[in-house]
Amino acid sequence: MVDRAASDPGRYRRVLLKLSGEALMGPRQYGIDPEVARNIAGQVAEAGQGGVQIAIVVGGGNIFRGLSAAATGMDRSTADYMGMLATVMNGLAIQDALEQSGCPTRVLSAIAMPEICEPYIRRRAIRHLEKGRAVVLVAGTGNPYFTTDTAATLRAVEIGAEVILKATRVDGVYDADPEKEPAARRYEQITYTDLLSNRLEALDATAVSLAMDNEMPIVVFDMTQPGNIVRAVRGEPIGTLIGGEVSG
To answer: Which of 7, 24, 138, 244 is the most buried (most CB within 10 A)?
Structure first.
């Protein structure tokens, strides 16, 4: 049962923070804005000082989008692998920013590239978290045809995270596109089933179904507001909570 009253500060022990690649662009048209990366890293470092173990999955849409390339005729598997490599570049940028903020960090990749990061091994990821290191998980699931939302949900389940915190540039889940429909209503809470049946595009259907099967709550929130990442990690009510049956 979803209960926002249970979201008291300090409730989480281990979280998975999902960052979109686009979030790293800031005002730019593509690439990584170093100031945005530093801001994210500063908030993650601050939140981690409270004892919360933080894993991060980062997308690659600011550099390359596999689906977009496939739509123009590129082989879908090739396009998706290129997108996975884009997440590695983003992950290394996040690692550098985190370590400059004084937060020890490890990058673990689903595609082996031992010269620059560790291979993703579930027990290794958990051990790093237990030692107080931020863990950045890159290269998606290592397989084409899966989004980084699905990768985030899979990794959250594998490492025993208590919640997925999906950081976006929108302050939650709406019943319509708020940029096109000014009267769109934001949900404070919504069930997995309602999210799927209403075809709301906060996450892809595979990610939502996996979260539902494993009773993994998801919080969608606006990361562009100062301090929101810290608030989300600390369990403060923020954005939209996606979960099981909504309590009355």
So the answer is: 138
Neighbouring C-beta atoms of residue 51, cutoff 10 Å:
10
Could you tell me if 229 and 167 are in contact, meaning their C-beta atoms sit under 8 angstroms apart? yes
Max CA distance (Å), the chain: 52
The full set of domains in the chain, from first to last, is: 4-243 (3.40.1160.10)
Amino acid in position 74: M
Cα–Cα nearest to 62, from 26, 108, 92, 98: 26
Which one-letter DSSP state was computed for residue 245? Answer: S
| Measured distance CA(6)–CA(24) in Å, rounded | 31
pTM metric for this prediction: 0.91
What is the full per-residue pLDDT of the chain (248 aa) written as tens digits? Answer: 344 434 444 589 999 999 988 888 888 888 999 999 999 999 999 999 889 999 999 999 889 877 788 888 899 999 999 999 999 999 999 999 999 999 999 999 999 999 999 999 999 999 999 999 999 999 999 999 999 999 999 999 999 999 999 998 889 999 888 878 888 899 999 999 999 988 887 888 999 999 999 999 999 999 989 999 999 999 999 999 999 876 55
